[in-house]
Every structure is written in structure tokens, then in C-alpha cells.
């Protein structure tokens, strides 16, 4: 395997919470292939968890960031501009919804949680992409994280499905806006993952097992699989891929119903 595929490239990873995070899986693979990384974190508690992970990859820029605070995001951009001058990629793995509303009916979503979920889970991509644009002169790659619930009804995913649908639409519009600058914008859509965010969705364990039992690969994706897909999009091999939602879910998105061996027998 080419250990230098990302050599000489620098990028910002947003969304690492612990060593089970999708953002961590992506960061680890990128670093293993030579990328220099910067991390953000939200709040002191997450900062304490993320620092050992950042240190293990030689991350020199570990910055607080609240995507609902303009000054916070400006500070991230300014630090990278001063330290690096140029950014080759942005990994956006940020989402939020009140876990009490990730169960039951979507119809019961509150206005407050709807707006906050869309702001943090979707608008933050637009906001950070605009800030990274001056640092991506000559081209770059922006990768965000979606989920099948953006395109199909998933139990208890509720307002997050709407937020991810908006995120996927934003990917397409950003890809068109930033393409002339040589910047590609794509989303990865992993299957259900055993992450801090994934565990907030009601029935997460049953969903995880169902995908493993019924996907064509009969297995859920791993963090390394997602990291590898992200590396393709951030590397020069992904130079002509933009505006895409790439599934990393063992093929589950292509299945129309459960595998026959997992269907209840018909009673005659």
C-alpha cells in the first residue's frame, strides 16, 4: 500500500469525539498515508478526550470550535491561515439533534430542535466551506458525512433524516459553486455505526444488527473502510469526483427487502 498517497497534504478534521468517531477513523487513515492534520473540538470535556488522540497522530493544531459561534469558526480559519497558509481538505463530521426527539414520531419534532438540528448538522458545512475557500486556492476537497435516512425512512431518525437530506442537497450546490475553484465537495454515507452520535438514535442496536444481517456483504462498515473512502476523495485519485453521495454500507442501500433467510416463515 502506498504510504505516501496523502504526503504533503494538510487538512482540518471536525467532529472527533473519541476513538469510535467516524471522524477519528477518517483521520487515522489519512494520517497513516502521510496527511498533516488539524482537529477541532467542542467544549473542554471533549477537548480532554480528543487531545490524546490528536497527540497520537502528531496533530499540532487542536482548536476549540462551536459551529453556532461565528467568532469561534473565524478563529479556526485564522489559525490555519497563519500556520499553514493553505488547506487541502476539510472533513466535516458534525451532527446534532436532541436525543429525546430521535425516537417516536417525526411529526412531534419541536421547532427549536428542528432549527438547531439543521443549523448544526447542515448549515455548518456551508459556513465552514465558505471559510476554507480562501485557503484552498488551487483546489481542494471537502467531505461530509450523511446517512441513508436522508433518502429513505429510517426508524427514529426523524429530524436528522431531514437534516441529512438538506446536507446532501448542500453538497450538490456547493460542488457546483466551488468546482470552478478546483474544489470538490462530496458526502460519504456509512451504514449505522457504533458511535456516540449513532447510539442516540432509538433502536440503534437493532438497526445495526439488521444491516449486518441483510446487506449484500452481510457486515457493517468499519472505521477503516470509511477512512479509506474519504482518503480516495481527498487524494488526487478523486480529482474528478464531486457532488456525490458515496455509500459505505456493505451495499445495504441497494436492498429492497430483508434477505429471505431473515424473513419470518409464512404460516399456511
TrEMBL record:
Top EC category: oxidoreductase
GO molecular function, one term: enoyl-[acyl-carrier-protein] reductase (NADH) activity
Alphabetical GO biological process terms: fatty acid biosynthetic process
Pfam families reported in the protein's UniProt record: adh_short_C2
Enzyme Commission number(s) of this protein: 1.3.1.9
Entry keyword Transferase: no
Keywords from the UniProt entry: Fatty acid biosynthesis, Fatty acid metabolism, Lipid biosynthesis, Lipid metabolism, NAD, Oxidoreductase
Catalysed reactions, semicolon-separated: a 2,3-saturated acyl-[ACP] + NAD(+) = a (2E)-enoyl-[ACP] + NADH + H(+)
Protein residues bound to NAD(+): 15, 21-22, 42, 66-67, 94, 164
List of catalytic residues: 147, 157
Pathway terms, separated by semicolons: Lipid metabolism; fatty acid biosynthesis
Family: Belongs to the short-chain dehydrogenases/reductases (SDR) family. FabI subfamily.
UniProt-recorded name of the protein: Enoyl-[acyl-carrier-protein] reductase [NADH]
Taxonomic classification: Bacteria, Pseudomonadati, Pseudomonadota, Alphaproteobacteria, Rhodobacterales
Amino acid at each position: 500500500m502506498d504510504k505516501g498517497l496523502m504526503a504533503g497534504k494538510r487538512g482540518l478534521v471536525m467532529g472527533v469525539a473519541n476513538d469510535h468517531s467516524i471522524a477519528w477513523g477518517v483521520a487515522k487513515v489519512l494520517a497513516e498515508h502521510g496527511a498533516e492534520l488539524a482537529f477541532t473540538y467542542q467544549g473542554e470535556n471533549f477537548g480532554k478526550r480528543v487531545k490524546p488522540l490528536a497527540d497520537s497522530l502528531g496533530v499540532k493544531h487542536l482548536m476549540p470550535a462551536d459551529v453556532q459561534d461565528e467568532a469561534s469558526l473565524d478563529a479556526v480559519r485564522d489559525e490555519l491561515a497563519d500556520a499553514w497558509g493553505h488547506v487541502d481538505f476539510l472533513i466535516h463530521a458534525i451532527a446534532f439533534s436532541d436525543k429525546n426527539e430521535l425516537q417516536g414520531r417525526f411529526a412531534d419534532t419541536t421547532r427549536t430542535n428542528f432549527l438547531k438540528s439543521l443549523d448544526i448538522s447542515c448549515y455548518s458545512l456551508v459556513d465552514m466551506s465558505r471559510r476554507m475557500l480562501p485557503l484552498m486556492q488551487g483546489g481542494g476537497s471537502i467531505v461530509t458525512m450523511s446517512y441513508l435516512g436522508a433518502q429513505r425512512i429510517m426508524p427514529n431518525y426523524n429530524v436528522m433524516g431531514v437534516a441529512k437530506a438538506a446536507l446532501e442537497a448542500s453538497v450538490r450546490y456547493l460542488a457546483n459553486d466551488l468546482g470552478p475553484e478546483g474544489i470538490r465537495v462530496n458526502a460519504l454515507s456509512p451504514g449505522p455505526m457504533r458511535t456516540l452520535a449513532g447510539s442516540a438514535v432509538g433502536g440503534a442496536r437493532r438497526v445495526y444488527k439488521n444491516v449486518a444481517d441483510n446487506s449484500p456483504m452481510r457486515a457493517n462498515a468499519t472505521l477503516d473502510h470509511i477512512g479509506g473512502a474519504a482518503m480516495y476523495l481527498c487524494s488526487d485519485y478523486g480529482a474528478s469526483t464531486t457532488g456525490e453521495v458515496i455509500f459505505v454500507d456493505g451495499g445495504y442501500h441497494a436492498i429492497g427487502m430483508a434477505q429471505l433467510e431473515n424473513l419470518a416463515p409464512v404460516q399456511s
